[in-house]
# Entry
Amino acid sequence: MKRKAVIVEDEIHSAGDLKNLIGKYCADVEVLSVAQTVRQAVEVISDVRPDLVFLDVELPDGDGFDVLSNFLDHYFDVIFVTAYDNYALKAIKICALDYLLKPVDKTDLIGAINKVRLADRTSEYRQRTNLFLHNNNQHDIYKQKIALPTMEGLMFVQKDEILYCNANGGYTNFFLRSKEKIVACKPLSYFEQIFDKEHFCRTHQSFLVNLLHVSKYMKGKGGHLVIADGTKIPVSVRMKSDFLDRFEK
# Structure
């Protein structure tokens, strides 16, 4: 049985290219309609009730987030489509949602749809989408949450609960205020890219620190930090200046 799909894309040629790729390489997906605005998207999705929506981030009368906010009961999967590696893409990555960069590559398209096939829309996927909407409506950056991929599945953690992270090979250890330790299946560099730089700072090759929980900075060649739980974290000579600039701000 084919998955019913809707494309939300204001650029006609981009929508056409995506529809052609889906028709050529994704035999179990059928595109039933294309919408170009938030208003059209809400009408089309309500009418078609698709299994899958390819959702452009930037639209003439708003954005893809405005579309999602109209559907509190997320009965469809979403694959975001964006032309830019910008703040919106960071927000998408933080929630572990699927996305495609324009121009869409067939290999990326197939991979994204394969991940959607494996997703459980009634539990984990819905949690990820709800997390995205929560973050989008939450102006306090520390009250936003992140989806941490672990060996057991996703764990949802509020940012102000994170004390610091440290590298563990291709994994990252997260240390929380609750004294819990979470091992995430992504390298530290991945989280450095998606965390906002005003509040999370790389102080060392192996450490990423939540500035909210820094109690002291102790001088030295590079120096070290004392975190709220008493942990001492090194500051490398190379990263000392950047850390002090951010901490003062």
Q: What stands out?
A: The CA atoms of residues 119 and 170 lie 24 Å apart. The chain has a mean pLDDT of 89.
